[in-house]
Amino acid sequence: MPRTEAPLVDKVRITDVSGVVYDEEEYNSMVAMYDATIQDIKEGEIVSGRILGVNKDDVIVDVGFKSEGIIPIEEFAGVEAVKVGDNIDVFLEEIEDANGQLILSKQKADFMRVWDQIREIHDSGEKVTGTVQRRIKGGLVVDVMGVDAFLPGSQVALRQVPDFDALIEREMELKIIKINKARRNIVVSRRMVLEAERESMREELLEDIAVEQIRKGIVKNITDFGVFIDLGGVDGLLHITDMSWGRIRHPSEMVSLGE
């Protein structure tokens, strides 16, 4: 019985998305060269990236991986602050989601970068400078060292603040009173700084104040029987009978709060 020759099989050919045809060996070589250019990145790390694109919802970032990452635009100060080509540090939350994209976060990278310094300031009780960004329920969001911190309404001032919106973009000294790394939570207080300053002023005033001195003060509270004056750390009562040579019905006829 004659021997049957096996049919010749052509080499496997692979066509890429641009239409270029490679044999299997060439294709595997190209893939190996490409893989060598990909950074060895791990979840839970801060990595450097470059902004490739910006739209109204997202910022597209290249961190040297086989796919780009997307960051919500809300994590940036504003669209005007994001420019294509800029280099930024981002936190790698997940290498690939269901769509095969990197999950990145700029806010987490900002927080992780300054966490050790924030913890040291909190532990030492030192003051830190912050800028009010916006008003939210219960208080204000303050930029402290590039990250968001919460300033509760009760910690904004010594007395009730009538208009929080008037404080937006204002710079102020604060104390860090609570931190939580896992939740990326920082709580600050301006009231504690003001109380310390007021106590210092009070001690100086008590050493210097004397009978028959003339001093300036700010109207702190108005009652039916008189006015409480803040003399700079110590409150004094100005009785209604001492407010005018003539008779007045109520102290509010003569003064107003904050005067």
Which key features would you list for this structure?
3 helices, OB fold (Dihydrolipoamide Acetyltransferase, E2P), five-stranded antiparallel sheet, 259 residues, five-stranded mixed beta barrel, alpha+beta
Concise overview:
It contains three helices and 15 strands.
Structural account:
The protein is an alpha+beta fold and 259 residues long. Helices cover 20% and strands 34% of the residues. The chain contains 3 helices and 15 strands. The strands form 4 sheets. The chain has a 5-stranded mixed β-barrel with strand order 3-4-5-7-6. A 5-stranded antiparallel sheet has the order 10-9-8-11-12. It has a 3-stranded antiparallel sheet with strand order 13-14-15, with no helix packed on it. The model has no long low-confidence stretch (mean pLDDT 79).
Stated plainly, the CATH topology of the domain at 125-194 is called OB fold (Dihydrolipoamide Acetyltransferase, E2P)
* Strand order in the sheet with the most strands: 3-4-5-7-6
Shape verdict: elongated
Number of helices: 3
Query: What is the terminal separation in angstroms?
Result: 120 Å
CATH architecture of the domain at 125-194: Beta Barrel
| Class by alpha and beta content | alpha+beta
Q: Please tell me the overall pLDDT.
A: 79
